[in-house]
Amino acid sequence: MNWITIAQVSDCPPGSSRECIAAGHIVALFNVDGQFYALDGLCPHQGGPLGKGRLTGCVVTCPWHGFQFDVTSGQHQTSKSLVHASFPVRVTGDEVQVGIEEP
Ligand code: FES
């Protein structure tokens, strides 16, 4: 696992989302009450930018057509069988890092 810095803690305040790039992956970063979570940044519907979605509590709404996911688990809010890919996140000092599996 490679840990890659994608943001500073201050870049993504509580209640916000942010689109980042890590090792060629588009990553959607979310801050829920001070806890960071990361999902694959491409919405599984048609590739919309989840990192530019609106975060309400722990649920992000895709800006393109409104799919909603729990950012803590990737769970789609109405389709139980759809769980979007996520990345592990850690905070080291002021840096937010995501873990990317090596190929
Ligand atoms: S691309 Fe996200 S809801 Fe359609």
TrEMBL record:
<dbReference type="Pfam" id="PF00355">
    <property type="entry name" value="Rieske"/>
</dbReference>
<dbReference type="GO" id="GO:0051537">
    <property type="term" value="F:2 iron, 2 sulfur cluster binding"/>
</dbReference>
<keyword id="KW-0001">2Fe-2S</keyword>
<feature type="domain" description="Rieske">
    <location>
        <begin position="4"/>
        <end position="98"/>
    </location>
</feature>
<dbReference type="InterPro" id="IPR017941">
    <property type="entry name" value="Rieske_2Fe-2S"/>
</dbReference>
<dbReference type="GO" id="GO:0046872">
    <property type="term" value="F:metal ion binding"/>
</dbReference>
<dbReference type="GO" id="GO:0051213">
    <property type="term" value="F:dioxygenase activity"/>
</dbReference>
<protein>
    <submittedName>
        <fullName>Naphthalene 1,2-dioxygenase/salicylate 5-hydroxylase system, ferredoxin component</fullName>
    </submittedName>
</protein>
<keyword id="KW-0223">Dioxygenase</keyword>
<keyword id="KW-0479">Metal-binding</keyword>
<keyword id="KW-0560">Oxidoreductase</keyword>
<keyword id="KW-0408">Iron</keyword>
<dbReference type="InterPro" id="IPR036922">
    <property type="entry name" value="Rieske_2Fe-2S_sf"/>
</dbReference>
<keyword id="KW-0411">Iron-sulfur</keyword>
